[in-house]
Amino acid sequence: MTDLHRLSIREITEGLSQAKFSSRELTEHYLKRIEKIDAQVQSFVTVTPEQALAQADAADTLRKSGMANVLTGVPIAHKDIFCTQGIKTTAGSKMLDNFISPYDATVVAKGKVAGLVTLGKVNMDEFAMGSTSESSYFGATKNPWALDHVPGGSSGGSAAVVAADLAPFATGTDTGGSIRQPASFCGLTGLKPTYGRVSRFGIIAYASSLDQAGPMARSAEDCAYLMNVMAGHDAKDSTSMEKDVDDYVANLNGTAVKGLRIGIPKQYFNVAGLDADVKARVEESLKKLQDMGATLVEIDLNMTEAYVPTYYLIAPAEASSNLQRYDGVRYGYRCENPVDLTDLYKRSRSEGFGPEVQRRILIGTYALSAGYYDAYYVKAQKVRRLIQQDFLKAFESVDVIAAPSAPTTAYKIGASLDPVEMYLGDIYTIAVNLAGLPAINAPVGFDKDQLPVGLQLIGNYWSESQLLSVVHQYQQATDWHTQRAAIAEENA
Ligand code: GLN
User: Which domain holds residue 87?
Assistant: First the structure.
């Protein structure tokens, strides 16, 4: 079969269980595509063909013995922020260029138990800081829809592999939009779960009170399959919730939209910098949902202007603390010939971290320093609470909240946005992380340059099943999620 990469996850599982093809055939098919096509997209940091084929063979043996799980033998790509035993985990940084973790992240371990086949590790902004994947030490990943554009970030590699059909789905992490924004830029579906739904154990930490992992795929249904693997309590992550996990696939229902009250925040659609095409596509998708039986309710989210300043204090503050561990002593990059301990710290950190990471460490350290702690960090925490309360109030009268995932479509590579411009692009995603809420991106069309536009739906706590169902029903009535970039149509 030459078109295995066009199958949905459900179709793959059916094909495997009916022995229409083996996991080895499927895995070889993807490895061939990676070899041929990834030179253009540059999404992988590490490809692991030997391990993948060994896992595929083991999966095929399990299938034959009747012991397989639903996803046994399905290939996946992991963001290079998830620790993988025996395989390099770089977090997109020179600092971890040679880091091989002695253990698997819980998400990776769960994937192995489910029988997933790891194709490799994919590129990302350095330590997940950025919105373009250009801050990676390993160079920029390209957007499969237009190779001179970025795929978004920080999970840009995860988005690019799926959009180029180099993997059927991928893991991502979202601290301030890093699943939703690249999903939006690459025409994919991506879910950021409620904080505490997915274990953070073994994920290289950026901002621990905001970090959350989730699935990136073509459709809500494909995401649901991966959520079934990823979600759940983990004793190794004290912030993961001891709460029953839904069966996200079984729960997908075709009537989720009827009677759904969708909140439209006035403030969100008046943001300076909201691209006219993005606004138009998002509004059309909302009209479609209305035609399908949803009610649109105008709401207020009064804290909108506080999102960017609040996030860009809290996230760097936590990052500066988390990144202290890279001191050139225990692990990670160490400078050559240090003259003394101070020189070792200084040069290891200034040579090992790129400029965006250094900027955030500086901002965060400043915000946490004795004289400024109350004025910046404590104040930001108070505003964070107000942002959360703003959402909770909104959820008294609506079921979900609609927004663009990003004010624009994908930027040109090297557009050299200044840092503040780039931070402003996070306006629609970061409040969700500050409040710990779940949210999903769904593709809803294209701009004048044929670049994908995404709709974001924000749900109340633990409403992942609802978000997936709403998007699933929308996707049964539309075909934006089935459209493919030209490069994905290329055969290997
Ligand atoms: N653009 C956000 C940032 O730079 C993305 C963070 C994330 O979700 N990892 O902080």
Answer: 4-262+397-487
Cα–Cα distance list, 197 to 223, 231, 242 (Å) = 15, 6, 9
Question: Catalytic: which of 154, 155, 240, 405?
Answer: 154
Q: Is the Cβ atom of 176 under 6 angstroms away from ligand 1?
A: yes
Whether 84 maps to a domain, the answer reads yes
| 75/55 Cα distance (integer angstroms) | 9
The whole-number pLDDT of residue 305 equals 96
Counting the structural domains of the chain, the total is 1
Q: Is the CB of 178 under 6 A from ligand 1?
A: yes
CATH classification at residue 47: 3.90.1300.10
The pick from 126, 191, 426, 434 for probing ligand 1's pocket by mutation, whose C-beta has the most ligand atoms within 8 angstroms, reads 426
The string of DSSP letters for 388-408 reads HHHHHHHTTT-SEEEEESSSS
Of all atoms in ligand 1, which is nearest to the CA of residue 177?
A: 8
Q: What are 365-374's pLDDT values in tens digits?
A: 999 999 999 9
Does the predicted TM-score (pTM) go above 0.85? yes
In this structure, is residue 337 part of a structural domain?
Answer: no
**Inside any domain, residue 88:** yes
